[in-house]
Fold this sequence. Notes:
The chain is of the alpha+beta class. It has helices at about 10-30, 40-65, 65-90, 95-120, 125-155, 160-180, 190-270, 275-290, 300-315, 335-355, 400-415, and strands spanning about 320-325, 360-370, 370-380, 415-425, 425-435.
Amino acid sequence: MTLGNLHEHNTIINIIRVILITTFTLGMMSSLTSFKFHVKKVLLLFGVYLVWIGVSTGVLLYFAGFFAFTRCMFFTISVPAIALAYYMDCNSPAQSVFNYATQVLLSYIMAMIILLINTAVHGNVGSYFVILSVTYILVILLEYRYFRKPFLELTKVVQVGWGSLSLIPVFFSMLMLFIANFPTYYTKDPFRILYILGNLILILIVYFLVYQSILRQYRYQMLSHHKDILTLQISAMEKQTRNIHAAEEKLKILRHDIRHFSNIMQTCLHDGSIEEANQLLSDLEAAVGKVEIKTYCNDSIINSVLAFYLNLAESEGVEVQTSFIAPPADKFDSSSFSVVLANALENALNACKEESGRRVIMLKSRNLNGQYLMELSNTCRKTVRFDKDGMPISQKGMGHGIGTKSILFFAKQTHSMVNFQQENGFFTLQVIAHAQ
Length: 436
């Protein structure tokens, strides 16, 4: 089938063709998108957009002709689609533009190749629309099945750099349209096919390098965060060690003073000075209390992290309630778990700092039926937004905070379950891990 066979001058057929390709392109976009609106509103917006496509395409085809339309469609079709993505997508604007511009670019290439294939097999208008529909539907299903989850996870964990990356599919789309339309339409010049295939190979190489770059950025981001947590762990353990040494010195002094307390106590009792004896006991109890080092669990690494954050919380005027048991040492690495705990406590403390009135952090854990259960709750009266998977969205921007990402990474590595919820003015993190 040549371009003439496609009824170049038949406005109705070309409007149907454009609306069909646009509809399928929207399907490709949707396969990798998490919308912030309900289904009915999304379909309504898509419907309005398709009406615009039909009207604008018909006007251009009728008054300016087919080739004028192909040279303008980036601005009449692609730009409004990207603007629609900006409005509806849960991701950041730059991530939305990258996704949608990439789908537009892929759609351009597919539409060109499908026309060439139908021409090579001497097909007609009917066979063209069949090949077009089957190809696009197959691509939509493949994207949804194999690329949706990895892409959405990537947009959650990597929040920077998408602005410059989004320029890649935009410029490639403009380049493909230029190759296809200037100075003549690509079907009338066989060498243009080689240009299109060459650009397709270049696009694949560029996207592979982009993926590698994003992956390295994510790994660096997580390593940097883990380095900060390890530095904090070392600092917490050093502080705990200093506290222990200071307590030992106080105990030495206290042991030396015990003899004087005992002699004075005997004298008071002998003389019947009960009030003075009670005062001496109170003073002794206070002295012992000052020496006491608060211990939250029997794991030194985890305990140092707990002591660091919970003491910091108390110094900020936050009420702390704990009933904590360390996870089984033979099943969980203390260092890895302490990273999770540090992230969770840091998030809880930061949330409490933004609250007024009574502020509370409650931490409890236990072993039950071969499972280790931990629950951390903190005062949080501000409404927390969750994504469709129930994960909290950072208030600093779209996506999850580094702390939440680290917790999710630990859960994935240990096959644990993580649940976040907000109820009755408290934000709660629950971790359920198999301890057997």
